[in-house]
Fold this sequence. Notes:
It contains 22 helices and no strands. It has helices at 9-19, 24-27, 34-41, 49-59, 72-88, 92-108, 115-128, 132-145, 154-168, 172-184, 190-206, 210-227, 230-246, 252-268, 271-287, 291-305, 310-326, 329-346, 349-365, 369-385, 389-402, 404-411. The relative contact order is 0.04.
Amino acid sequence: MYTAISQTVGDAIRTMRLGRGLEQKDLAAEGIPVQVIDLIEKNLCAPPSEWLSHFARVLGAPITNQAPERSLRHAAQVLCAEGVKLAEHGVYGEAGDVLMKSYDLAMAYQFYDLLAEIAPALLQALELSGRGEQAVHVGMHAVTCMPRGIPGTARRDTMIRTGASMMGTNDFARALDLFDEVLREPDTDEVTAVKMLLNSGTCYLNLGQFEQARTLYRQSLQVSEDLGQPFWLAWSCIDLAAVDIEQQRAVPASLDYLDRAEKLSVELANTAIYAAAVHDRGAYYLYAGQLGRAQRLIEEAVEYIGADSPSAAFMLDDLAQVYIQRGFWRKAQDTIERMAKIADAIDSMRVRGLALRRRMHKSAILGQDVQAHKFFMQAARAFLQANHQFEARRTLTLWETLHPDEEAASER
């Protein structure tokens, strides 16, 4: 419970506001959030003199402050606590709004030490409410302002969350810089190091730099083995298999990694790891040309992953490819439509590009050249808009594979 520090200012403001038929939002202004006005009226926060001048102008009467001008810091802490509570109940959108007000107060009045408490919770709420780009901006700002000597792991956690948000917005190069900095931090523990190696490997994978990704995944595998961490060991195995699968190659060593990951997933009773291993096994058989086997495995993985998430979208992309290559046009169309719905639900331009590329693929195989070209242009534009150069290049490669005569003509 918070202790009231003023029995007069908040009561006076509330009484005058109600007497004039105004709402709290009518007293708000830039830098004066409505949530803090509520705290003032509850006598949990004493406003500074410049705020009192603003309230006096709106209310048409002078207001004097009998409490010390020290409690905006307390207001930032109260808002942070309220935001964290909302996030714990899964109300991420509202949590992000409240935590943003707390963050703005801390920044405006230079309460930089409070960023250790506010920033990680705010970044999580923004990311989970689909505001990845805002999370990147806030995270970089917070990392810059947060004192280096701040106790605990807050600065490191903020860098990690900011890097994760950058991955979500396909800003892989900048994410690599942050993960690198975390690895260089003197207090970074070995488990966190494994996570950073895996994240960095995934960044390189999405940049199409496969050997760099393989090197980092091998390092994470070694560290996970040394630590006896089966969870991270399983993901290291899956990611090592993914290096060749992302190059659309069926390399037998991938199956060894996937066998190990699948065994660990059963021991850990972890559905996500199991689904990823099964999917990658299906992708292996897709590129090995064993389409029936690939279809059964990828369908199983999609069923295990359940929710229509980004992970499900990538699995569905491979499944649509199998259906197209097998000539199962209705199933291919249904799968592509499901991908498009996921893209709309999570507002992902990258997933939208995947769906458009499969439409291009399907149309080209059916000889619908005009439609195929339209989808090719839309897919390439979507990937470029999503800042995913590797997917844009892969789209062009697929287009040229489907139209070898056009490529030869352009070379002549």
